[in-house]
Automatic annotation (TrEMBL):
<feature type="domain" description="ABC transporter">
    <location>
        <begin position="14"/>
        <end position="249"/>
    </location>
</feature>
<keyword id="KW-1003">Cell membrane</keyword>
<keyword id="KW-0813">Transport</keyword>
<dbReference type="Pfam" id="PF09383">
    <property type="entry name" value="NIL"/>
</dbReference>
<dbReference type="InterPro" id="IPR017871">
    <property type="entry name" value="ABC_transporter-like_CS"/>
</dbReference>
<dbReference type="InterPro" id="IPR045865">
    <property type="entry name" value="ACT-like_dom_sf"/>
</dbReference>
<dbReference type="InterPro" id="IPR041701">
    <property type="entry name" value="MetN_ABC"/>
</dbReference>
<dbReference type="InterPro" id="IPR003439">
    <property type="entry name" value="ABC_transporter-like_ATP-bd"/>
</dbReference>
<dbReference type="Pfam" id="PF00005">
    <property type="entry name" value="ABC_tran"/>
</dbReference>
<keyword id="KW-1278">Translocase</keyword>
<dbReference type="InterPro" id="IPR050086">
    <property type="entry name" value="MetN_ABC_transporter-like"/>
</dbReference>
<keyword id="KW-0029">Amino-acid transport</keyword>
<dbReference type="GO" id="GO:0006865">
    <property type="term" value="P:amino acid transport"/>
</dbReference>
<dbReference type="GO" id="GO:0005524">
    <property type="term" value="F:ATP binding"/>
</dbReference>
<dbReference type="GO" id="GO:0005886">
    <property type="term" value="C:plasma membrane"/>
</dbReference>
<dbReference type="InterPro" id="IPR018449">
    <property type="entry name" value="NIL_domain"/>
</dbReference>
<keyword id="KW-0067">ATP-binding</keyword>
Amino acid sequence: MVNSKMGSTSEPIISLKNISRRFSRTAAVDHLSLDIEKGEILGIIGRSGAGKSTLIRCLNGLERIDEGQIFFEGHDVSHLSESEWAPYRQRISMIFQHFNLLSSKRVIDNIALPLKLAGVPKEKRRERAMELIELVSLKGKELHFPAELSGGQKQRVGIARALAANPKVLLSDEATSALDPETTQSILELIADINKRLNLTVVLITHEMEVVSSIANRVVVLNKGKIVEEGRVRDIFASPQDDTTIAMLRIVTPQLPAEFAKRLKPEGDEAVIELNIAGDVAREPFLHLIEYESGLIPRILHGGIDTIQGEPVGRFFLGLPAKDKDKLDKAVSWLIKHGRYCEVLGYV
Ligand SMILES: Nc1ncnc2c1ncn2[C@@H]1O[C@H](COP(=O)(O)OP(=O)(O)O)[C@@H](O)[C@H]1O
Ligand SMILES: [Mg+2]
């Protein structure tokens, strides 16, 4: 590969320009543009059928695009033949939901397989495979067969194999979806560790918001093949804008308990307020600040604060006495000013 551009640090490692991939009448990826930055962990989320797998397969040439352009480190790779893709595919490797290991091969041979295909001599392959076994904490398992491993261990083999040829980008298609929550967390920690240690760019697609909130720096929300929302994970979690994102976040964020929702009226003694807060305000005793500002003492109906990417992100349902309209207005104005999102849902 010829490096035609001087290595400016701001150049995206992968750049998608207006790409589309259609299956008969469905546009699985629909005029999508996206820059993937070197060294980032990018989460791509969306419901089933949103086009996530198609998109990630376009990134390593497993899926051809009908329209647009794909650049890898500044090189146009949009319309390469299968053989021209080969060197790039070592640079952009992938892990899968069902691991895709060869059941007849031992752990060490599964890991060394990409090196064998690349013509690396046996002794070198062994050496590299042993390094990787160490890296993914599978020491002692090198001679086992996949059937003798747990799901988490199988995925560690998948990760080691993906790293064998020193890729620059690791693509993950629902790599933790078949794992239990605890194992998911340990695999995510491994991916985050590899990202830091090897400065590897990671693109992970998932339908699980927890995966994104625990390791991604940036998130892209996909719906019907288009990007509907994009930004830093903590910003998106603090104030999602698109309906798809809001719906997906609903599973992991507090919702107004049904007994309150049922009782909401246009007027009443207590205002029920939905509040999202993040960053500095969420570090402060903000309930006390509301009281200081308005003279009203809020009560928490439901909610709490989470830490996402080291930043506090809170979501609350508050009850505020509504008899004194002036005071209520003061409290709500304060919340609108300092919160990420504030809405008076109704009264009880
Ligand atoms: N090989 C294919 N042939 C026909 N339609 C496909 C094919 N792959 C994906 N699709 C369609 O493209 C859309 C996006 O699918 P996919 O990329 O698998 O979404 P996701 O991974 O987000 O669930 C769906 O409507 C799906 O039915
Ligand atoms: Mg998929």
